[in-house]
Amino acid sequence: MKVDKERRRAISREAARKRRRAEADVFADLLRLLPLRASVRAQLDKPSVIRLALCYVRLKTLLRDAMFASPFFTGAAELRQNSESETEAVDETDVYLRVLEGFVMVLSSEGDMMFLSDNVGRYLGLTQTELMGHNIFEFTHPCDHEEIRSVLHFSAGEPWSDAKCDFVMRIKSTLTPRGRSTNLKSATWKVLHCQGRAATCADPFLTSCLLLTCRPLPVSHTLLCSRTFSSEHSMDMRFTHCDHRVTSILGYPPHELVGRSIYELCHTLDVVCLRKYHIDLYSKSQSVSGRYRMLARGGGYVWAESHSAAVPGPRAPKSRAGHPQPRLILSVTYVLSVEEAFLQLSLEQKMQHGYVSRG
After folding, report:
1. CB 57: neighbour CB atoms within 10 A?
2. Which residues have C-beta within 8 Å of that of residue 230, sequence separation ≥ 6?
3. Is 89 exposed, middle or buried (0-12, 13-18, 19+ CB in 10 A)?
4. Residue 135 CA to chain centroid, in angstroms?
5. Residue 242, Cβ neighbours under 10 Å: how many?
6. Nearest to 159 by CA among 58, 65, 61
7. Using one digit for the tens of pLDDT, what is the confidence trace for 35-90?
8. With 168 labelled, which of 140, 189, 314, 355 sits at a CA distance of 20 to 30 A?
């Protein structure tokens, strides 16, 4: 009896070892198929391998879908199919991402992060492999969940929709203001400006997805150029200070704008756009207006975009320590069509002097 028991135990142990070896071989093969660097693959555990494998299977289905005609995905598909040009394609993608000053994200209709470009760690501290396969709601601010759900619900409509989405959300970041890394429990909120479009996949299990470009706020230094002016506003969006460059761009002397609301200068059809931007400033402290039309001093409108942050004002005296500190809005406005304003102003001046017929 003892001999039989020992034999059965030995057989059972050998069967368990074979199962473990077979399982290890399967995971090793699956790991080699993941399009990741060897140094990254070496740090993955089994649950991460399964999670990432599922993401890449879903992503491959999207790449095969002819309706998904994005240059980024087309380049990614060619990269996988032609190994000879792999280095050149990777270098080209890196250039695009540096120019973008952000990262790329693909969301399913349920909010699963199906793909993130590998430069995401530069902005959030969290790596591509740490985020892919997880749900966006696990990492975003609870107060932004309703807005994200509405964007995802909007994307799950038509079989193919060219509708664009533009929103601001707060997401966890393990980078400190000094650029150091911390753990996820100590993560802070980083505000992202997300722009993209929705697409529906032909596969019945992949109803739709969002292709997003995500750029961190506040304002990038690249916007500080000759077509840009900075300003300060009260929380009701009235000018309290304006950069002198506004005169050469829009024709207004800075003192003429003080006390006026941005709503007085925008086109009536763009008030809804500015209202959402204003609400985001209250709730998220940072926002991007999107393109709107701004009235030039000589008449006519120019297209502009404002990047703003709500910041605390000067510290209150100790005698008034119980009162809330005042707040103000710092804004950088990038005028996209300044030449049109000058052309229209020049035309009106010529008409006034009779050089151009009004007919």
Report:
1. 10
2. 242, 243, 330, 331, 332, 333
3. middle
4. 16
5. 24
6. 65
7. 888 878 888 888 888 888 888 888 887 776 634 444 444 444 444 454 445 555 55
8. 314
Residue 218 is classified by DSSP as: S
- Amino acid identity, position 233: H
The amino acid sitting at 266 is C
> Radius of gyration of the chain from Cα atoms?
27
Distances (CA, A) of 198 to 9, 159, 270: 57, 10, 23
As to burial, measured by CB atoms within 10 angstroms (0-12 exposed, 13-18 middle, 19+ buried), residue 204 is exposed
Take residue 144 and report the two structure tokens written for it: 């932004």
Is 0.90 topped by the overall pTM? no
At 15, the pLDDT band (50, 70, 90 cuts) reads: confident
Residue 110 contacts residue 17 (beta carbons within 8 Å): no
Task: Give the single-character DSSP code of 209.
Answer: E
Looking at residue 254, its amino acid is P
Residue 173 CB neighbours (<10 A): 21
Residue 218: asked if its preceding bond is cis (omega within 30°), the reply is: yes
Residue 75 to residue 295: CA distance in whole angstroms: 41
Q: What percent of the chain has pLDDT over 90?
A: 23
Instruction: Provide DSSP, 306-332.
Output: EEEEEEE-SPPPGGGTTSPPPEEEEEE
Displacement of CA 175 from its chain's centroid (Å): 17
Given 3-state DSSP classes, what are the helix, strand and coil percentages for the chain, each rounded to the nearest 5?
A: 45, 25, 30
Q: Which two tokens stand for residue 54?
A: 């599922």
Task: Identify the residue whose tokens are 């193919």.
Answer: 160
Q: For 193-251, how does the pLDDT look when each residue is reduced to its tens digit (9 = 90+)? A: 998 887 765 555 555 788 899 988 865 544 557 788 989 999 899 999 998 989 988 99
Rounded to an integer, what distance in angstroms lies between the CA atom of residue 163 and that of residue 173?
29
More confident position, 315 or 246: 246
Asked whether 169 and 195 are in contact (CB, 8 A), the reply is no
For residues 81 and 83, give the distance between their C-alpha atoms in angstroms, rounded to a whole number: 6
Q: What is the pLDDT of residue 263?
A: 94
